[in-house]
Specification:
- The protein is of the alpha/beta class.
- It is built from 22 helices and 14 strands.
- Among the domains are: 96 residues, Gyrase A, domain 2 (2-Layer Sandwich), CATH 3.30.1360.70; 79 residues, no CATH class; 119 residues, Isoleucyl-tRNA Synthetase, Domain 1 (Orthogonal Bundle).
- The strands form four sheets. The protein has a five-stranded parallel β-sheet with strand order 6-5-4-10-11, sandwiched between helices. The chain has a three-stranded antiparallel β-sheet with strand order 1-3-2. The protein has a three-stranded antiparallel β-sheet with strand order 7-8-9.
- A hairpin with a 2-residue loop joins strand 7 and strand 8.
- The mean pLDDT is 93.
Length: 563
């Protein structure tokens, strides 16, 4: 039978100790009893700085107060079921209260993993939210680039983590299928078609603002095969735009599917424009008094909501800026009853954050209902050599090309190896290597190594997860204890990733867990002549495999049985 989690019980006991000591001194103060896992094992399994925070409020030295709190805590522990679960407690440093678990308590995490399986890391007590997560949303003017690939990996992994934590998450792609860039795409295709049909100027670059990539030559050839255009080429004007954007969008969806990224919905900007919702949104802002006219244009009073300047919604030629449809789109999101919106955007959208949050607030919602994450740029390297990329010149490296080089697992993992706001250096040579220097290989190899152990156990008729709590106390060596302690930290790693909306939080955890397992494997024979010890070590390996598999799944990375 599994014991209840120790952290909340110990927190309650510590608060009681504070209450008793302060009552004895005839004083009272607000105390927040909280613990964290120390970075170094020498400082225990749980540590609290509550005494130091309280001492600062009371303007007294923390160490003497900590000694009194510890003495009272130890007295309460003697009469508590926690007594057998805590091996030692001490005041250390300026006034930290550090608690050290018993060997059996540390190993009890394996019983939790056995009971919960891949639900072991799920946060408890969180309020489930209905969340709309918008990401990638690349204009259908060219293939997905490595920058889009990073956004895809970040968004899909974040959705997996939020769902795992109990939230209802819908993933949406906003398809910018009309506007200036789509018009430029049509003009670029038309010129390519004209040159191919007339066999003129084939080697000349297109005008500077046109799309230059070779992908447009391929689209032009398909266009010619389908429509057989001939002069005057203007009579095919209505086909250039829809053909190019739809064919490119088809390729984008295929690339995302190959990257194991799917969306619950694709939201069309063109459909939004025809729905009347843009005009309705403008009217609502007018009625609320957040719109004014100046110099022939219509302006949004975004400075009233923290923006650095007001923004144009309708230009003097009566055409919309990109901002008005975007506001209407977010209004539509909120009217679909989502409680929290997350947008993942590229690094050229920093200035966008305040204006769209201002719009959300102007529409009568809390600006905190919208979180905008900026995914910084990716730089590709082959060893020490940086690869040049230029979208306008058509020299960019596509996501498809990257995946052909490194594969889906390495692609996803490497894209997640930095926080959203950190620039990412992607080493193609390292990502392709099948060595322990490759971090995703290092983690996957730990999973596959455990599968080999389990297969050996099956051959020898040794049970994988039948040992009891008492036998788990045999797992007392340094490498075993380190691995067990690392397993205990998985729920907090998941909680941190969910709380901070940062899939990266799982990366160093999984690397640490894999490292702890590899050290354990090097130090200890799992299958030995000692049946009881063997069963305990097999359960340790099996529990580690479960957590590795769960963590990799939340990153969208496979957990292979063989490597």
């Amino acid at each position: 039978m599994n014991l209840p989690p120790i952290e909340p019980l110990l927190t309650d006991l510590l608060l009681k100790a504070f209450e008793n000591v302060l009552a004895q001194q005839g004083t009272s103060s607000s105390v927040v009893g909280s613990f964290e896992v120390p970075r170094e094992e020498k400082f225990g399994d749980l540590s609290s700085n509550a005494v130091m925070r309280l001492a600062k409020q009371m303007k007294i030295s923390p160490r003497p107060l900590a000694e009194k709190i510890l003495a009272e805590t130890q007295r309460l522990l003697k009469n508590s079921p926690l007594a057998r679960r805590i091996e030692k407690s001490a005041v250390e440093g300026p006034g930290f209260l550090n608690f050290y678990y018993s060997t059996q308590e540390i190993a009890s995490v394996l019983l939790q993993i056995r009971e919960k399986g891949e639900n072991f890391g799920k946060p408890s007590g969180l309020k489930s939210k209905k969340i709309l997560l918008e990401f990638v949303s690349a204009n259908p003017t060219g293939p997905l680039t490595v920058a889009h690939g990073r956004q895809a990996a970040l968004g899909d992994s974040l959705a997996l983590i939020l769902k795992y934590a109990g939230h209802k998450v819908d993933k949406e792609y906003y398809n910018n299928d009309e506007g200036v860039q789509i018009n430029t795409l049509a003009a670029s295709l038309k010129m390519r078609v004209e040159r191919l049909v007339t066999k003129t100027d084939l080697d000349l670059p297109l005008p500077e603002n046109y799309y230059q990539g070779e992908y447009l030559v391929d689209i032009a050839k398909k266009f010619i095969e389908k429509f057989h255009p001939a002069p005057p080429f203007e009579k095919f004007q209505d086909k250039y735009q829809t053909y190019a954007r739809d064919l490119i969008m088809e390729g984008i969806k295929k690339d995302l599917d190959n990257f194991n990224v799917s969306f619950d919905s694709y939201y069309s900007q063109e459909t939004l424009g025809h729905s009347g919702k843009v005009e309705q949104c403008l009217e609502e802002l007018k009625k609320k008094g957040f719109v004014y006219e100046s110099e022939g244009a219509v302006w949004f009073k975004s400075t009233s909501f923290g923006d650095d300047k007001d923004r144009v919604l309708v230009k003097s030629d009566k055409t919309y800026t990109y901002l008005l449809p975007d506001i209407a789109y977010h209004r539509d999101k909120l009217e679909r009853k989502y409680e929290f919106l997350i947008n993942i955007l590229g690094p050229d959208h920093h200035g966008y954050i305040q204006r769209i949050k201002a719009a959300v607030e102007a529409l009568g919602y809390s600006r905190d209902m919208l979180e905008i994450k900026i995914a910084q740029l990716v730089t590709l390297f082959e060893g020490d050599k940086q690869l040049r990329m230029s979208t306008r010149a058509g020299e960019f490296i596509t996501l498809r090309e990257l995946l052909d080089e490194v594969g889906r697992d390495a692609g996803r993992f490497f894209f997640l190896m930095r926080r959203f706001d950190a620039h990412l250096d992607f080493d193609l040579t390292l990502a392709k290597s099948h060595t322990m220097d490759n971090p995703v290989f290092y983690i996957q190899y730990a999973h596959a190594r455990i599968e080999n152990i389990k297969n050996l156990c099956i051959e020898k008729n040794i049970p994988v997860d039948k040992t009891n709590a008492e036998n788990l106390a045999l797992l007392s060596s340094v490498s075993e204890t380190q691995l067990l302690r690392c397993l205990r930290q998985f729920p907090e790693a998941v909680r941190a990733a969910e709380r901070d909306l940062e899939p990266f939080k799982l990366i160093p955890y999984l690397q640490e867990l894999a490292g702890a397992f590899h050290r354990f494997y090097a130090d200890s024979r799992v299958v030995t002549d000692d049946k009881t010890l063997t069963e305990a070590r097999i359960m340790l390996a099996a529990g580690t495999q479960t957590v590795l598999r769960t963590g990799l799944r939340l990153l969208g990375v496979s957990a292979p049985a063989k490597m």
